[in-house]
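REQUEST FORM: STRUCTURE PREDICTION
Request ID: SP-0412
Submitted by: Lab K.M.
Chain count: 1
Length (residues): 417
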Amino acid sequence: MATRQYIGARYVPKFYVNGSGTSEWTANTAYEALTIVTRNGNSYTSKKPVPANIGAPETAQDYWVSTGIYNQQVEQYRQEVETLAENLSDFETSTENRFDLIEDQIKIKRLVIFGDSWADTDNTTYLKWPTRFDSNKVIVSANYAKNGSSLSGSPDQYGLNGNVGGQIAYAASDTSYDKNSITDIVLMGGVNDFRNGITSSDVAIKCQDHITRLKTLYPHARMVFFINYQIYVTVEELKFCSFLQRELRRRGLEAWHMLAWLAAGNFIEDKIHPSNDGYTQIYTNIMAVLFGGSPVRVPIHTSYSFTHNNASLSLEINEEFTDEGYSIFPSLTVSNAAAAGQADFVASDYKQNGCCFLTSIGNLYLTSHNPANLQNALVYQTYDSVDASHRGTGIKFSIGYPGNGTFLFPVSKRIAQ
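STATUS: Completed
RESULT:
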């Protein structure tokens, strides 16, 4: 079969190859049509035959057409990449700044405080808990607490021996800070209401009004209530604190009774107010609660030793307060006893030592765990003398003991929430 050969103008482009083996355009050279050359990183294709005396492709547009402006494209790409990198850097910086701001806002709490003398920092020599916060973690924007204030007083009254309602009214008129920036509201009180004979139910009802007003004043704030107490806590005050906590929680308020936050030695002589060590413990527990933890409660251990009819008796009392309630674990050790008996004695100073035992448990019938002798031991209380400074002084109680040995009693009394 015969082979046909096309003779005529080029119709398939070809790459130019110079004497150095590259496609770079060279002067004084004639080029066929559709010849592809490169120059300064760009490519050109001849539109028609190019005589040898024609200059460089970029200046001879009648003969050459640009088919690949690589330098310009690369420069454009470089600029776009550089701009993108700058935008990413700005975005990263902006994002980091926003994260830092959010982190700071999460980390730093801004408080307002309402309450009684346990939180009032005016005219005192004690380093109370509101003054102890690290400003990198907690900022107290305002402290409205006043000595002697109650929760349930009416009408609203601000100042010494006033009430929290008056403090809230005063806060409403205070324009010294941005109320929208407040993260936490801390209320502390209850002991003055109890001492004035107000029931926990009446206090809770009044607190409902406080809650409503505070939510309006501080729309973004969490509210935390701490219920304080006296060192000589009685069964009535124990119930008051426990039931008030339950009622406040039922109303949607985060409430914590402060029973056993302090040991006996953490109160001053009036038995009502904490010492500097006590305020340290209060500060530690409040910080724990504010940042998602739980308070630490102090277990109470009290010992009594006495003799009766030549028998030696040792009464060990362990009390335990938790958020859920109160438990007491007594044990009695008897030696040199000829037979079961009963002994009376007076604890003249147990209240000063911080024991809540007698006035907390009332009349108890304690069953011995000694399988050989299942007699009942009776512990009871009588108020022989009570005065304003040392309530409980001269408490007399009686123990019926079933012979020799150590007699352990499980949970004898529990006052739960």
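NOTES: Residues 226 and 338 are 51 Å apart (CA to CA).
Reviewed by: T.R.
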